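[agent] plan:
  1. take the single chain provided in the ticket
  2. run structure prediction with default settings
  3. attach structure tokens to the ticket
  4. add a short note for the reviewer (M.T.)
[agent] executing step 1
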Amino acid sequence: MWSSCNPKSDSDLNECAELGKSLNRLSQPTILTLLAKANRPLHGYIIVQLAAQSPMFGGKKPDATGVYRALKRMEESGHVTSAWETPDEGSAKRLFTLTGRGRECLRRWIDALACYELTLEELRAEASDALGIDLPDTPQCSHV
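[agent] step 2 finished; step 3 output follows
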């Protein structure tokens, strides 16, 4: 059963199939956000470097192979396009560009992330209640 925060049907889920599947690092919305912010094509290497600076990776360089796999999946689903840049000197590099469908997917991520946030807050409250401890007003992360 879909809640109001989630896609209403399997076809809705397929529109942005990564929703909920990469919560551990949220690579898809991170990459889509980087491409939207850049508002220009980016090399995969640059995407990896910028992802390391994003809130999801906190200064740690993500696995480049995983980023390239995510880019390939996003290209197959129409969220990004790519083209080869072949300079006169040096190696060829693939440039990735956000598509209109990718922008729509990122917009859906904004809503999904808000729902995740609310759900996580509810879980925090239940867990704190179960332990009989006060829930801090501001979330605190002990690994930062």
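[agent] step 4 note for reviewer: Residues 1-7 have pLDDT under 50 and may be disordered.
[agent] ticket updated
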